[in-house]
Amino acid sequence: MGAAMKFAISAAKLRHFAPLAAVAVLGLTGCQTMTPGGPNSFSFDPPAQSPQNRSNVKLRLSTGAQRLYVVEGDKVLLATPVSVGKSSSPTPHGNFTIYSKVANRRRASSPGAGYPMTYWMEFAPAYGFHWGFVKPVPATHGCVRMPLKAARKVFELIPSGTPVNIAASQPWDATVGKSLPRLDDSHLPDPPMSYLLSPQVFSDAKLGKMWRC
Questions:
Q1: Against a cut of 0.70, is the pTM above it?
Q2: Would 197 be classed as within a structural domain?
Q3: What total number of domains does the chain contain?
Q4: What is the CATH number of the domain that holds 138?
Q5: 58 in a domain, yes or no?
Q6: Using one digit for the tens of pLDDT, what is the confidence trace for 30-75?
Q7: How far is it, in rounded angstroms, from Cα 77 to Cα 89?
Q8: Range of 51's domain?
Q9: Which of 169, 176, 84, 87 is nearest to 133 (CA)?
Q10: pLDDT digits (tens, 9 = 90+) for 145-182
């Protein structure tokens, strides 16, 4: 969402394993704000408003627009572009609940054991919101990839038990959602696997960065 895989396998190949999709990757000489397809997800830092009552906060995901909204009533507290599941492995629609939150999660099974899935928020078995490559087209095996700073803010905003609604569209797609940038991490080069498997990847995530970004 298999034989043991050697860690030497390239991170580029790991992008296609489910449900890895966990890391927006930067170059060894530092990240660039713009890539050929547009700004990358590391340039995106969405504003977030504090809720009046955290128990009233909900997540609303539009798979058609690839937009996630953190809302309290009709008020949008945070909005971010995301990447959802491909047509062959769609993100499930329906009503769910965030029942597990793990800031420093790693994939436990092979292929890809040990790969970071930072700011994991699980809403169904093997399906979750987490930090990962963001592309302007559906690109995952069902999980929802988020920009790093957005993932951290959403993780901090919502408690376990937060309701989740996933549908083809949401009421804010034509307004708030339309104003969000088109993010494309497709052209970012890969950091070394030694970095991705190290504790440093989580330490950097807390600072809103990855590798030399």
A1: yes
A2: yes
A3: 1
A4: 2.40.440.10
A5: yes
A6: 455 555 556 889 889 999 999 999 999 999 999 999 999 999 999 9
A7: 29
A8: 11-206
A9: 84
A10: 999 999 999 999 999 999 999 999 999 999 999 999 99
